[in-house]
């Protein structure tokens, strides 16, 4: 069975004889067919390209707005960056151009005396070059009471020269504490023709032990650390005695003696017992015995403050009833 061949010319000739409603319907079908073919072949791809172009245009508008805002703030950002660079260069110029180790050692000795600390050793370590400055580490060991060592470290960190304290270790050593630490001072490379700026000191932390306790001692053995009072300087030409080379914390009172005219205090340090009278000296801070009682002795110590003025501080050694 074969299908009849479509004869377009015959169909169009016959359609012309159709009634008007059929011809209108046929025309509508032809128009719809043309619109469908146009939508599929031409309009749909063009619409997709248009939507893609609109999305890219919106993204470009956003980028333009962001870059416009950035360009508006560029001048302010440039000024801020220039100010930061000037401040950084100023900080570098505050660093000394030469090593300050001699001055640092003098400060260490002065602050150790001022705080009743015995510095036992100082070792200069190798310099550590950095990109813009050089570090000079100094390894040091010191012995003293807890509050004295804390005040010593606080005073070191408060020096006008740039000094940082690192790698701090603390351990008991007999009646005292042993402190090991690394103190670092710094020097920078200053271009020729530029003067060294004075270091602007920041807020300084001052260690105050008046409300703190020694964590290495029993609460019943805590002793108040009385601040010093202004005093005359001691006789620095006086020959120092053997007992002035030892910290007072190494001594304990074990008794008293009396010949009816003069009283003596018996102090033990290690395996030795020493006899002291009023006026004798004890400890590294020019401590002088001022009174001897049955249960205690009184001393007055002299030490310099951070500014070099001399202060006096009373101190009491209580009899050890278990000795």
Automatic annotation (TrEMBL):
Pfam families membership: PilO (PF04350)
Key words of the record: Membrane, Transmembrane, Transmembrane helix
InterPro entries: PilO (IPR007445), Transl_elong_EF1B/ribsomal_bS6 (IPR014717)
Residue ranges crossing the lipid bilayer per the database entry: 20-43
Top-level division of the source organism's lineage: Bacteria
Name of the protein: Pilus assembly protein PilP
């Amino acid at each position: 069975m074969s299908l009849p061949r479509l004869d377009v010319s015959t169909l169009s000739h016959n359609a012309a004889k159709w009634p008007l409603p059929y011809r209108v319907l046929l025309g509508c079908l032809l128009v719809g067919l043309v619109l469908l073919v146009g939508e599929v072949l031409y309009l749909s791809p063009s619409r997709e390209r248009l939507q893609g172009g609109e999305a890219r245009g919106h993204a470009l508008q956003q980028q333009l707005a962001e870059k416009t805002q950035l360009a508006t703030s560029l001048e302010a950002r440039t000024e801020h960056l220039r100010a930061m660079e000037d401040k950084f260069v100023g900080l570098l110029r505050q660093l000394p151009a030469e090593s300050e180790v001699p001055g640092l050692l003098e400060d260490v000795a002065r602050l150790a005396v001022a705080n009743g600390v015995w510095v036992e050793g100082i070792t200069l370590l190798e310099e550590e070059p950095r990109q813009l400055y050089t570090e000079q580490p100094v390894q040091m060991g010191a012995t003293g009471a807890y509050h004295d060592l804390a005040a010593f470290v606080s005073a070191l960190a408060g020096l006008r020269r740039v000094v940082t304290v690192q790698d701090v270790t603390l351990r008991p050593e007999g009646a005292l504490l042993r402190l090991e630490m690394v103190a670092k001072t710094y020097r920078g490379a200053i271009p020729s023709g530029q003067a060294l700026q004075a270091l602007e000191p920041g807020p300084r932390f001052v260690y105050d032990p008046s409300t703190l306790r020694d964590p290495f001692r029993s609460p019943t053995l805590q002793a108040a650390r009385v601040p010093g009072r202004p005093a005359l300087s001691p006789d620095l030409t006086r020959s120092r005695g053997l007992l002035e080379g030892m910290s007072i914390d190494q001594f304990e009172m074990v008794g008293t003696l009396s010949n009816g005219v003069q009283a003596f205090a018996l102090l033990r340090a290690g395996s030795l017992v020493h006899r002291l009278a009023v006026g004798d000296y004890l400890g590294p801070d020019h401590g002088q015995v001022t009174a001897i009682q049955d249960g205690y002795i009184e001393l007055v110590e002299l030490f310099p403050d951070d500014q070099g003025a001399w202060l006096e501080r009373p101190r009491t050694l209580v009899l050890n009833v278990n000795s």
